[in-house]
Specification:
alpha+beta; Protein Transport Mog1p, Chain A; Membrane-bound Lytic Murein Transglycosylase D, Chain A; 7-stranded antiparallel beta sheet; 4-stranded antiparallel beta sheet; 18 helices
Length: about 500
């Protein structure tokens, strides 16, 4: 949760990139039409807000390399002046995601780049997004649903929890998505298939191994499954509202088969070059955005920390932290504060729904670990039955307050009491001890094994599994001397 901003909602972590394998879907456009002035203006208007909402654009050698590969693959699209017309950004975000908007704006997160294992995979991901631009998918979707115009849903999302059509629990998840993220959600299946085929075509034309589309999908599917196990979720699929693209696991073999059919198998991958260029890339949460460590969230810049209940998992977003479990959901964020906690809590409730009035029975004042606090709970009707919505707010200064917004089945509001009471300030020493994780590219030495290398991973759990997924290794695949591999270590 970076520099938590006003009137903000969460960016859900672990978003799934779905580079669909083509299974048909009509003719693939030649995409020779240049990006129009109106498209360029549309993208330019949205670009700064997207950067802001996804942690900002990174700079330096890592970002320069990603932009170089992206522009080179964009040339294969046939769009006029493709190299000059495309803007490729590496986002400082700990989620696995990539997306594109009209006007030639292409984005990938550092977390997704860290999951890749060669330059062909990077080119494949960026090529898929170039395909969306070339095929004008955003424009087609907006024409079909004018209410979802570029950034047009931001106002509704920023108003908070939307109670209504598909059940309150689902709506909390939808409210957790940022306005600009909605621009990147839910291309149709045929559009995803079309972008996949274009991406594979671009790989082949550029001389890359087109199988990279399938291998990066496989890594992402394995990462989704690992995240589910580590977080204690009962399946490897993300909630529907947390997925920008369809599930990658179902498409790995189709992507590999489609690539094989191009006749380009055996093209370049540039593995060692890629690994050398991403060495030192931040992995996981950036301390400036707050860090999730197990059930604890700690923000060294804001000097605060809290602990999620047992059995719940947290996802750190650019604007909020979401807390998810079988018996409830919550998010931690902030709203404008005028030095009055009662009115703060009331204003959060007031912004929850345009369909029905949501008011707590009362607003209670208390103190939590020395912090002035106030809270209220409202019983609300939803399609799935009655639920309790709780707002629990804390004052950190005369002009700064934060709050939890939680939803539980009716009568279960106490589910989050332990979390509410865990909110605390942290001191300078604790804040200074929050050190980021980074990618460290090393060369396998004689005697090194998967197990011995995995022990160097900066995690206390699932070290071997994390190492294998990070390096695209199957369960029975070993390392060999001289091979470059990635490990995750603590930075300096």
């Amino acid at each position: 949760m970076s520099r938590i901003r006003l009137a903000a909602a969460t960016s859900v972590t672990a978003l799934s990139l779905g580079l669909s394998a083509c299974m048909g879907g009509g003719d693939i456009p030649s995409a020779s039409t240049p990006i129009t002035q109106s498209e360029a203006q549309m993208g330019a208007k949205a670009h700064p807000q997207l950067l802001d909402e996804f942690g900002g654009a990174m700079s330096g050698s890592h970002a320069q390399y990603v932009a170089q590969v992206g522009k080179n693959i964009a040339v294969q699209s046939g769009l006029g002046n493709a190299r000059e017309s495309f803007t490729v950004s590496l986002l400082n975000s700990p989620v696995n995601n990539a997306f594109a908007i009209p006007g030639g704006y292409i984005y990938t997160t550092r977390q997704l780049v860290a999951l890749m294992n060669n330059e062909a995979e990077l080119a494949g991901v960026l090529g898929h997004e170039v395909g969306h631009v070339a095929a004008r998918h955003s424009q087609r979707r907006q024409a079909a649903a004018q209410r979802n115009t570029l950034l047009g849903a931001a106002g509704a999302i920023l108003s908070g929890l939307l109670l209504g059509n598909s059940g309150l629990g689902q709506q909390l998840g939808q409210a957790a998505l940022q306005g600009s993220q909605l621009l990147t959600l839910k291309f149709s299946r045929s559009q995803e298939l079309e972008a996949d085929e274009l991406g594979i075509r671009y790989l082949n034309q550029a001389g890359y191994d087109p199988r990279a589309m399938g291998t990066v999908l496989r890594s992402l599917a394995l990462q989704n499954a690992l995240d589910a196990r580590v977080q204690g979720r009962d399946n490897a699929r993300l909630p529907e509202w947390a997925s920008t693209h369809p599930d990658p696991a179902s498409r790995v073999q189709t992507a590999l088969s489609k690539a094989q059919a191009t006749g380009g198998a055996g093209g370049i991958t540039n593995r060692d070059t890629f690994l050398s260029r991403i060495d030192g890339l931040t992995y996981g949460d950036d301390p400036s955005q707050g860090v999730v460590e197990g059930r604890q969230f700690i923000h060294p810049d804001l000097r605060l920390a809290f602990t999620a209940p047992q059995g719940f998992y947290m996802m750190n977003g650019t604007r909020a932290v979401s807390i998810n479990g079988q018996s409830g959901q919550a998010q931690f964020t902030l709203a404008p504060y005028n030095n009055n906690l009662d009115s703060y809590v009331a204003s959060v409730f007031a912004g929850l729904s345009k369909q029905q009035q949501v008011r707590p029975q009362s607003i209670q004042k208390t103190s939590v670990n020395g912090l002035p606090a106030a809270y209220g709970t409202a019983r609300v009707n939803s399609n799935s039955g009655q639920v309790d919505v709780t707002v629990f707010a804390y004052e950190f200064s005369n002009d700064r307050a934060y709050h939890f917004l939680a939803i539980t089945p009716a009568g279960r509001a106490s589910t989050f009491n332990q979390m509410f009471s865990s909110m605390r300030r942290i001191d300078a020493r604790t804040a200074a001890n929050v050190i980021p994780r980074v990618i460290d590219v090393v060369t396998v030495q004689s005697g090194d094994t998967v197990k011995s290398l995995a022990r160097r991973m900066a995690y206390s759990d699932s070290q071997v599994e994390r190492f294998r997924v990070l390096n695209g290794l199957t369960s029975n695949e070993n390392v060999r001397p001289g091979q470059k591999i990635k490990i995750v270590v603590r930075g300096r």
